[in-house]
Amino acid sequence: MAEKKNNEKLEKLRHSAAHLLAHALMELFPKTKLTLGPPTKTGYFYDFLPAQNLKEKDLEAVAKKMTEIAERDLEITHEEISKADAKKLYKDNPFKLEMIDGIEEDTVGIARQGDFFDLCKGGHVKSTGLLKHFKLTNLSGSYWRGDRDGQALQRIDGVIFPTAKELRIYEKRVEEAQKYDHRKLGKQLELFTFHEDGPGFPFFLPNGKTVCNQLIYFMRKNLEASDYQEIQTPIMLSAELWKQSGHYAYYRENMYFSEIEGKSFAIRPMNCPGGILIYKNRPRSFRELPLKLSEFGIDHRHELSGVLHGLFRVRSFTMDDAHIFCTQNQIEEEVLKLIAFVNKILNRFNFAKINIFLSTRPDDFMGNEKVWDKAETALKDALKKAEVQYTINEGDGAFYGPKIDFVIKDSMGREWQCSTVQVDFVQPENFDLTYIASGGQKTRTVMIHRAIYGSLERFLGILIEHYKGKFPFWLAPVQAKILTITDEQNEYAHQINEKLKAAGIRTVVDDSSEQISAKIKTAQLQQVPWMLVLGAKEQEQGTIALRPREGKQEFGLTVDQLLSKAEALLQDS
Ligand SMILES: [Zn+2]
Ligand SMILES: [Zn+2]
Fold it and tell me: 398 CA to middle of ligand 2, Å?
């Protein structure tokens, strides 16, 4: 209840701040045509048609004007007026006129503060004086009604908070996010790069590939322990197949096509049809179910160049995918196992929190209502048995089946949706997936799609920011860097290196002619978890001085002592 009240309060603040923003725009640039300015989940924005395009630097003047209007402490009032009167108010604004025509009631709401007015449903703070702790965050382009073919507009985004303290926390968070932006750290730590010859197609450098491989090994070990069987299916498949799966009809715009011997082929945007063809390879008996086929599948999806964003929004990515083919009665047990599996994997990364959402039948669902009910009950029962808290998103499921989403909260308090478990009744129909039941009758198979990292590329981007570039020992591209104090220790350093490598530790020797202080600085910038410093004393005693990235230095360690420390850090990975 308290949360709901809080949300209402925030929504009023954000909504009122949008009016304040529009008011400031109209005072500064009276020829501006306002369009829409709603509150959002994180703040508010206003879309408008400027007489002359605003520039980034204009935001400061807009914010200053907002403060000035806020200080006038104008009362905010709301009234209902006739549509005819509203049209008179907006006779020069075709956008508002169109909005007025779209309102079903006979009257429309108008909010007023001073001589400014705006079309509005209501829900404000009492006066502009209460709008204190705000900030304008972005100026961008948008379109009327979000339609790319429609009128091009400009958009200003902003945030507002009830207290100065909350605004400060927000600003600190933004500052941190910029400081630890994965694109910046990716370059600094030599993890990945992009090239103009492949826009949106990431190139993994050896360090980044090593981290990805660790993610894959960790996943593969857990998959094997949970009776998954790994498969690999083609990246290119006939357009006919994508017609059968429905992707051609609904997703064609985002797919890449090519021709082979006069026949159309598509580069896959997802891995499901490949898995399905393996299921259909031969008739299946109930004894084989659940059949769990996993695949690290490389997918390509067309994204407009304007939305590409480091590893977060790419055109090619690897999904840690799996499809579980089972009977209707097995859904609950399989989902229960999946909840445990997802939690086990995600818990390895020390996220601040994992929130679970169950999305149920949408209005435009496909398939049989009774089957849907049964599946939704199975998911709810599984969540209950797993003793996890979850939120229901009513009507938010995919048209082909209900789903469970896992949203992680990272070390900077940001939320990311990665893992998803989706029941599917439609693809089994499209591809006529069946099994022979115990009584000998052909029965429709149920399919569960699930991914845990989601896209490995995006997950890596999230991890880079979550760890602020400091990968834990098990994931670090280089786990230990061996630093010699003088050239005298070079041979000893390589002996230690061989021993650690043989034990599976990822090590590098820095036997350059740099001063030890410079070697340490380089290793620190590379965020290497262990620096192993070797001087005359260590060489003489046959020991190692350990200088960890975090924590205290230790002297006089033997190789065996070091290895047991590593072993403790590598447990469960
Ligand atoms: Zn309003
Ligand atoms: Zn799938």
Answer: 12
Asked whether the beta carbons of 319 and 451 are under 8 A apart, the reply is: yes
Specify the residue for token string 């010859």: 197
Phi and psi torsions of 398, nearest 5°: -70, 160
CA of 66 to the centre of ligand 1 (A): 16
Q: Which residues pair with 135 in a beta bridge?
A: 159
Residue 254 CA to ligand 2 center (angstroms) comes to: 17
Which residue, among 349, 363, 479, 475, has the nearest Cα to 419 in the 3D structure?
A: 349
How confident is the prediction for the chain on average, in pLDDT? 94
Among all bound ligands, the one having the nearest atom to the CA of 110 is 1
Q: Are 229 and 293 in contact (CB under 8 A)?
A: yes
What is the whole-number distance in angstroms between the Cα of residue 319 and the centre of ligand 2? 10
Q: Which residues surround ligand 1, an ion (CB under 5 A)?
A: 111, 120
Alpha helices in 53-159 (DSSP H): 58-71, 83-89, 94-102
Task: Give the per-residue pLDDT at 2.
Answer: 66
pTM of the predicted protein model: 0.84
pLDDT digits (tens, 9 = 90+) for 368-405: 888 889 889 999 999 999 999 999 999 988 888 899 99
Ligand at shortest distance from the CA of 118: 1
